[in-house]
Amino acid sequence: MGSYRVSQELHLVEFRKFYLVMRRGWPDWAAFLLLGFLVWIEGKTIKARVKNTIDDAIEEYEKIDPPTPVVASPVYSESGSDFFDEMRLTAPWVDREPPSNSP
Questions:
Q1: Is the pTM of this model over 0.85?
Q2: How far apart are CA 59 and CA 68, in angstroms?
Q3: Are strands 75-80 and 85-90 parallel, antiparallel or unpaired?
Q4: Domain extent listing, the chain
Q5: Helix axes 28-64, 13-22, angle to 10 degrees
Q6: Residues in the chain with pLDDT values less than 70
Q7: Rg (CA), the chain
Q8: pLDDT digits over 2-12, tens only?
Q9: Residue 16 class from Cβ within 10 Å (0-12 exposed, 13-18 middle, 19+ buried)?
Q10: What are all long-range contacts of 35-44, with beta carbons under 8 Å and residues at least 24 apart?
């Protein structure tokens, strides 16, 4: 395993240094398995760091400029006689139903 292959596979310096120290004295097949394992762990590490950085940036931005929820208010309607009134709350995008004929 030359250092060229390691520099292609491993992107973070700490993983490259760790691999170069650990592979000494190991057979080539074991060093190759170690490299594969480190590539897998490094990918997970990079994804976690990116996710944490983005989440922190979003939290910081929301502290400065909090999001305003855009929720349409419901449509209120009443129908019926004095004793059997029917009240409805519906979403504004739903078509209104005619009042029911229940007693």
A1: no
A2: 14
A3: antiparallel
A4: 1-92
A5: 160
A6: 1-7, 81, 95-103
A7: 31
A8: 555 666 788 88
A9: middle
A10: 35/1, 35/5, 35/6, 35/9, 35/10, 38/10, 39/9, 39/10, 41/15, 42/10, 42/11, 42/12, 42/15
Amino acid at 8: Q
Give the alpha-carbon dihedral of 85, 89, 92, 93, to 10 degrees.
-100
Tell me whether residue 14 is exposed, middle or buried, using C-beta atoms within 10 angstroms of its C-beta: 0 to 12, 13 to 18, 19 or more. exposed
DSSP-based three-state secondary structure for 23: coil
Give the CA distances from residue 100 to residues 44, 80, 88, 94, 96, in Å, rounded to whole numbers and listed in that order: 58, 9, 11, 17, 12
8 A C-beta contact, residue 98 and residue 88: no
Rounded to 5 degrees, what angle do the CA atoms 41, 11, 52 make? 60
Distance (Å, whole) CA 46 – CA 55: 14
CA 9 to chain centre: 26
